[in-house]
Amino acid sequence: MARLVVNVDHVATVRQARGIDVPDPVLAAGLAELAGADGIICHLREDRRHINDRDLRLLRETVKTSLNMEMAAVDEMVEIAASVKPDMVTLVPEKREELTTEGGLDVVARPDHYGKVVERLHQAGIKVSFFIDPNPDQVEAAHGCRGDIIEIHTGHNSEAKSEDEAKRRFERVVRAARAASSMDLGISAGHGLNYINIKRFESLPLVEEYSIGHSIVAMAVLVGFDQAVRKMIELVKSF
Ligand code: PXP
How many angstroms separate the CA atoms of 124 and 152, rounded? Predict the structure, then answer.
């Protein structure tokens, strides 16, 4: 049975649209946990465009399941993580001009750098996940850097224009998951997953955890946070 980790960034996006203090992503995280989520994830961006330092600190104080901090592999974020101590960090590439994380981290290009970041986070007692494209070379590099988990970037799957293309893209995810499994890495998947395209993953029990944000928050605006999380849990737990 797979786990669902709820990303609360976009609750903060709505708050930032008005520059006031509601809706509160910390409250949303509590509701997600009460609805049965297995964990909470938030992305502290360098520009603090949605989640801010106060949110992260309060989430650390209040999240009872597991807190995953998404972040760029830069000194500022590594120091914040080492001090706040989320249960886990997910390393992602970050560009200021992007609307959302656009691609996986190129671990192959900078193994020494990422290896050092992992070492520092491990010293602080934090597990490390690499958000990567479904590419066996990236899986191997993440393993070589002593990452604990890989999160397979599923954004390309959700953008497929035809069923054939969706199948081909899903095959890449399957191959990456098999490679990670052979290296004893934990396997997560995330980005662009919604109540419809998640169903394809039923055939891939190697994925242990799903990290989902936008589609849950979009559903929550219409039916409420509790129901939106429960609906996604129903799907993920049926795998
Ligand atoms: N995983 C990672 C690494 C991400 O950057 C994001 C987006 O913040 C997600 C999962 C969640 O993606 P979405 O909001 O499309 O569900």
Answer: 25
- Give the span between the Cα atoms of 29 and 55, in whole angstroms: 10
Q: Cα–Cα distance between 52 and 24 in angstroms, integer?
A: 11
pLDDT digits (tens, 9 = 90+) for 164-178: 999 999 999 999 999
Active-site pick, 10, 43, 50, 143: 43
Distance CA 163, CA 166 (A): 5
Best residue among 9, 10, 49, 101 to mutate for probing ligand 1, ranked by most atoms within 8 Å of CB: 101
* Exposure string over 84-108, b if 16+ CB within 10 A, otherwise e: bebbbbbbbebeeeeeebebbbebe
pTM over 0.85: yes
**Residue type for 122, please?**
H
Quote the pLDDT of residue 158: 82
3.40.50.1860, 3.30.450.40, 3.20.20.70, 3.30.70.20: which CATH number matches 3-237? 3.20.20.70
The structural domains of the chain, with segments of one domain joined by +, span 3-237
**Nearest ligand 1 atom to alpha carbon 192:** 15
